[in-house]
Structure formats: C-alpha cells, structure tokens
Design a protein that fits this description.
The structure is a homodimer. Chain A is α/β, with parallel strands linked by helices. Chain A is built from eight helices and nine strands. Chain A has a seven-stranded mixed beta sheet. A two-stranded antiparallel ribbon of chain A has the order 1-2. Chain A is elongated, with a radius of gyration of 19 Å. The relative contact order of chain A is 0.10. Chains A and B meet through helix 1, helix 5, strand 8, strand 9 and helix 8 of A and helix 1, helix 5, strand 8, strand 9 and helix 8 of B. The structure holds a DNA duplex.
DNA sequence: TCGTGTGAAGTGATTCACAGCG
DNA sequence: CGCTGTGAATCACTTCACACGA
C-alpha cells in the first residue's frame, strides 16, 4: 500500500464526516456529485480519492453510504479508538476537553496534564487531569496515538519531548513555536494567529 | 501583482513569526539556512518564497531581520490592524478571546456575539460580548476583516450568513460543517476532529 | 443514459543546479 | 569562497475526456 498524501487523508476524513450526517438522515446511497455539492469539492476529485481506497461505487446508483464510510474509516484509521493525551488545561485545553465532536469520530481523550495545582486531579468532562510529572508513567501504561500540545509556548518543547519519549508518533501543536522532534514523528501545527491571518490574506 | 497561493501565505506568516522571535533576541541578520533550521523548511524554498515578495537579501550576509519582517507584513497584510469578530462564546470562543498571541500579529478582536443571556454584555479580556441580534448593526459600523465561527454546528450557517451580509470576505470556521457562502468569500475550516485524526492517519 | 473509474493532459509546487555578487 | 536569486527540471496534484457497466 502506498503512502497517502496528507491532502487525501483530510478529504477522506471530510467524506466520513459528511457520510455520518447522511447516514443520520437515513440516506442509503449517495453520488459523487451529491458529495461534491455538500463538501464544495468536485465530483471527479471525490471519485479519484475514493478509488484510491478500493472501489465501492455502483454505476447509476452511487455509493452505499454505510459501506463507503466503513471502507474509508477502516482504510485510514485501522482501529476503533484513537487515544489522545492532552498537555495543558488552560482555556484552549479546556475547550478541547469539552469539545463535543470527538465521540463520533472514534477519538477519546484518555488523560490531560497540567502544572497548575488547582486543576490537578479534577475531572473535566470525564477526563482526569494529572500533574505533568505523572505523564511518563501514564503514557507508558496507556499507549496513546496522539499528543496534543496546548501549553504556553515556553513549555511546548518540554511537552513535545515527553510525547516523543513515550513513543507516540503524532502531535498536534497549538503553540506558536516550531518544535524539534525526530523525523518519524508527525507534527500538525495549528497557530491560531497564522490561521486567522491566512484566511484574511488570501483574499487581499 | 499575481495572486499568492495559500501555502506561500502561510509560510510567509511563519517567517514573520520567526523573525519576531529573532528580533526579540536582537539578531540583526539571518540567512535562509538559519531560517530553514528554525522552521523545518528548506533554505531554497525560503529564498524562493522571499523572492516572490521582492528581493531584500544581501549575499554573504543574509536578510536584515527587521527589514524582511516589514517587507513580508506589508506585502501580505497591507494594513496595521486586522479586525476580527467572533461568533460564539462557548469554551472554544472564550479560549480564542483569551488567546495571548493575537496582539503581536496585528490582530484585534473587536466584538463577540452570543445567544446565551448570561454572557451577553460581559467583557471578556477586554472584548464586549453582544447579543447575536446586534451583529448586523455592529458589523456595519466597524468593518471587520475576519469573521470567526465558534458556535454549535446547527447555528454555523446562520453565523456565516451574518458575516457574509456584513461584507466581510474572510471566515474561519471551527464548526464541523461545510458552509454555503458566495465564492468571493474565503473560508478556512478547522475541524478539530479532522485535524487530530489527520495527524494520526498520516503516520499509519 | 447516468454515474463510476481511470489513463492522459494540464497545472501548480518543490527541488535542482548554477549564475551572480560582495 | 558564502549566500542570494532564479530558470529548468522534477514531482505532486487536479482536471479532462472518455471507457465501461447496470
């Protein structure tokens, strides 16, 4: 199996999200043109993407919504539960803990880590907040798939080091800092300032 | 002037962020190789990007940090203050209001809108929270550059409609929904579930 | 005929290789 | 030399055009 590009993966996840809505509406089949209409992409691109996961469409009918969703999820996720560990329970971290969308997408936050004593040992939306020092132990026990960094910039590299040391190979970084990690670790940077400005600049 | 791609813009903003740090450290000049080392990109790409904004480097010395930052900012931002209006003051919206990074990047949140009466008229981090119904009036008065959608999915299209009606041409959307807007409006979607899963999938 | 699947063509982005300049 | 700037080549992605199957 060849490595899928980051772009195809993001679109595939968008298809899964869309199919989820359609399935909720009891829609049994969907054409690439309908998916294109909902997602804002083109029908050809959607067919091309889907074909790279193995063919599942029926000419003149389209795709079976449930089957397509399962095909995509199985192909790109491989497992039923993706475990997340969160570093930093400030405003953004708390927002992530309370984010309602994760359940549907097989995502579970298994632990959060903080240095602020007032927050340690609290339970937020069912997730336990631990002292940062407990991270190595806890990460060793429950192998997590993704480490999320929502700590202040000064501590973001420390958080990254903890995540890397635990063997986790994927990081989502909200700190406006470029982190140093081994090349086998994948980082997805989300710098809110850059995202906002990029949205604006693109139209200038 | 030709239209810059979204990718170049994001990288340029990353250079600005990096230059900001270097300037804070009193560094006067920087080479493309150093920038490459800090940002994780290649030196050639950085030179190519910079050259598309007009040449400013000196052979054997590199770029003047202050001058380069100014060139990039002036070229892509065009103005000194980028105004943001926020829709939704839930967990994520509050995190955005309290996000410390905006000041440095010429971003200012000028108003927030909510339906929850308990939050209306409050001041969060210096930003006034208004009833959603006030949005058309307020947006008309203070022309904002970016509308940020952090409301529950069900109301995200309504928020988008208000933003579009006000004449704002850039939207950052955190709701896991594909919004319908005229083609001259640029939307940047940030679906946390998709971002998290994409970070994970890319390594599988 | 309608909608899928896909090789081929086209477009856009990145990397290479090297010219130019202090 | 060391570092920038850039045409040329390569690579990646998207769109086109059309074959095929129910």
């Amino acid at each position: 199996m060849r490595k899928l590009s980051s772009k195809i993966i993001s679109r595939a996840l968008l298809y899964v999200r869309t199919l989820d809505v359609l399935i909720g509406k009891e829609k049994k089949t969907v054409s690439s043109a309908e998916l294109a209409d909902i997602t804002g992409l083109t029908d050809v691109q959607i067919r091309k993407d889907i074909s790279s996961f193995g063919k599942v469409g029926t000419p003149r009918v389209g795709y079976d919504t449930g089957e397509l969703k399962k095909t995509l999820e199985d192909f790109i996720l491989h497992k039923n539960v993706i475990k997340v560990a969160l570093f930093g329970v400030g405003n953004l971290g708390t927002a992530i803990l309370k984010y309602p969308g994760f359940g549907k997408q097989r995502l579970t936050i298994v632990a959060a880590f903080e240095t602020n004593k007032k927050k340690i040992d609290k339970l937020i939306n069912g997730v336990r907040v631990y002292a940062l020092e407990k991270a190595p132990d806890i990460l060793k026990k429950s192998r997590v798939d993704i480490g999320v960094i929502a700590v202040p910039s000064e501590y973001s590299q420390d958080a990254a080091d903890l995540i890397v040391a635990s063997g986790t190979k994927s990081i989502v970084n909200f700190a406006p800092v470029t982190l140093n990690v081994p090349k086998e670790v994948n980082i997805r940077d989300i710098d809110l300032s850059i995202e906002f400005l990029a949205a604006y600049c693109y139209n200038q």
